[in-house]
Design a protein that fits this description.
Elements (H helix, E strand, L loop, with lengths): L3 E2 L4 E5 L6 E7 L9 H11 L14 E5 L1 E2 L2 E2 L4 E6 L6 H5 L10 H7 L17 H16 L4 E9 L2 E2 L24 H16 L6 E8 L13 H9 L5 E6 L17 E3 L3 E3 L7 E2 L2 E2 L4 E7 L9 E4 L6 E4 L10 H24 L7
Antiparallel strand pairs: 1-2, 2-3, 3-7, 4-7, 5-6, 8-9, 8-10, 10-16, 11-16, 12-13, 14-15, 17-18
């Protein structure tokens, strides 16, 4: 197992959901980058569950043990340790031979010959994404200093849909009803919350879609084929637990249209722009200067309170599993800072591919 990614900004993560310590190491950050710890803490707070989420409450306390001195990066590998404090493993111990349907339990048991840490999904757990949010906060701050901004909203939960960003003026992308539940229509917020609460009451769960806009990206970032913007972003987004689909611009709905209805015609208004953004700011794997629009589909959590049919891995007999742990009925609201973080990381790495390390603080 090697949890490493990046070509220029090389990131390594380690740890499991119910171990005391998880860690993140970032190689490739230029010396002299000021770390905004308040911004990191803000992003971590956005990831933590609200009253609609799991009862597991982590402070996400962390320690920087290398690559940081007097408020700035030193150029050495930057390493964070994050501490898990609210751990309760008893439910996982008693069910360790009963894989949860829809989880990695069974394939991980086979792949690692039963030696994997099954508590709280181990290294497969969404808990690990706290490391990604720290990474993303650092990358997002670098991008913000370049006037690049990443904005996400809840596009849908279950069958309740918010308005799409392609239906809005760019200046309205940040005009959410509330920051803690970012949607554009109040009636949509109320309906989404009711859907989540109803699912929780029924011991069930719901999924949804997060839509993200990235503003201010230069023209020509990315490479054709294997390192296209879509390829890199999709690779990273699919690394987030529970992500089951990624699309750009109008996504799959564009397949139902004639080509004449999907043209993003060029025009000049102080700079070259397009009159629509059906393609989500990307042509041929390269950015075209328009907002990059990304849709990320997140499945309904499969750790639910209803009885689940499974196979006992010791005797290969069918059994009914009744989960009693601490679980989310919907993780979509918590996913936004994680999605933003992955996209920020991928974009910084792609920019470094063009301009090198010195680009970070110019």
């Amino acid at each position: 197992m090697a949890s490493i990614f990046g070509k220029n900004l090389i990131v390594s993560i380690f740890g499991e959901s119910h171990n005391k310590i998880m860690g993140l190491t970032i190689n490739g950050l230029k010396a002299g980058i000021k770390l905004d710890l308040d911004f990191i803490n803000q992003k971590l707070a956005e990831r933590r569950p609200n009253i609609l989420g799991t009862k597991r409450k982590e402070k996400d306390s962390y320690e920087i043990i290398s690559g940081f001195f007097n408020g700035f990066t030193t150029g050495a590998p930057l390493t964070f340790l994050v501490y898990n404090e609210d751990i309760d493993s008893k439910d996982y111990e008693k069910n360790k031979f009963l894989p949860r349907s829809g989880h990695a339990d069974y394939p991980a048991y086979v792949k690692y010959n039963g030696y994997q840490d099954y508590r709280g999904s181990g290294h497969f757990s969404g808990r690990i994404t706290v490391l990604i949010v720290i990474l993303g906060a650092i990358c997002e701050k670098i991008l913000n200093n370049k006037n690049i901004e990443i904005i996400s909203h809840i596009k849908s939960i279950h069958t309740v849909n918010d308005i799409s960003m392609n239906e809005l003026e760019i200046s309205n992308y940040k005009n959410f009803i509330t920051k803690d539940f970012p949607v554009y229509l109040k009636e949509v917020k109320d309906s989404m919350i009711k859907v989540i609460e109803d699912a929780k009451e029924a011991k069930d769960s719901v999924g949804g879609v997060v839509e993200t806009a990235i503003l201010g990206v230069d023209v020509g970032i990315g490479e054709p084929f294997f390192n296209s913007i879509e390829s890199v972003f999709s690779h990273l987004l699919f690394s987030i637990p529970s992500v089951k689909g990624v699309s750009f611009g109008d996504g799959f709905s564009i397949t139902k249209e004639f080509g004449s209805n999907t043209l993003d015609n060029l025009y000049y208004d102080g700079k070259i722009k397009t009159n629509h953004n059906h393609m989500g700011g990307i042509n041929g794997g390269l950015t075209n200067g328009m907002p990059i629009l990304v849709n990320t589909a997140i499945k309904a959590p499969v750790s639910i309170g209803k009885p689940i049919s499974t196979i006992n891995l010791k005797n290969l007999q069918e059994e009914i599993l009744q989960l009693t742990g601490r679980h989310d009925s919907c993780i979509v609201p918590r996913a936004l800072p994680i999605i933003n973080s992955m996209l920020a990381f991928g974009l910084v790495d792609l920019y470094m591919n063009v301009y090198g390390q010195d680009w970070m603080d110019k």
